[in-house]
């Protein structure tokens, strides 16, 4: 039994590990890391299908090979600028922003109220319906 304990102690490092700090960072950054990985996978697949080498992509994008390598591993928090540079260099769409006309966001004026009409009681009876940006009566 003593021999096993000695073997174990010989294998165990006397330096305390910070594994829990790294694990907490991975948990905290999971959302953007998952998206970065998905983007990296899409870029790699496009490069393979179109026979684009990393050397060529580095030249086209004007970046360092080490930076591209970290991006392709999904380890970089990509900026919109970098994503746009990939889209331009590879002629693909990596992210799409859903655009809606500004008319959909303009609030509709439902009724006019003068300042003299505002009382604590009248304000309490009115509520804003955020779905329609209008007013509706509460209660009776």
Question: Could you give the count of β-strands?
Answer: 2
Q: What sequence of helices (H) and strands (E) makes up the elements?
A: HHHHHHHEE
What count of helical segments does DSSP give? Answer: 7
Approximately how much helix is present in the residues? Answer: 40-55%
Q: Provide the spatial order of strands within the biggest beta sheet.
A: 1-2
Distance between the ends? 81 Å
Low-pLDDT regions? 122-129, 132-137
Estimate the strand proportion: 5-15%
The main pleated sheet reads as: 2 strands, antiparallel
**Chain-averaged pLDDT:** 80
Write down the overall geometry: elongated
Alpha-beta classification = mainly alpha
Radius of gyration in whole Å, from Cα? 29 Å
Description:
The chain is mainly alpha-helical. The protein is built from seven helices and two strands; from the N terminus they run H-H-H-H-H-H-H-E-E. The longest helix is centred in the N-terminal third of the chain and has 20 residues, at 30-49. The chain has a two-stranded antiparallel sheet. The termini are far apart. It has helices at 2-11, 19-28, 30-49, 54-61, 65-72, 80-90, 120-125, and strands spanning 126-129, 134-137. The chain has a domain at 108-137. The protein is elongated, with a radius of gyration of 29 Å.
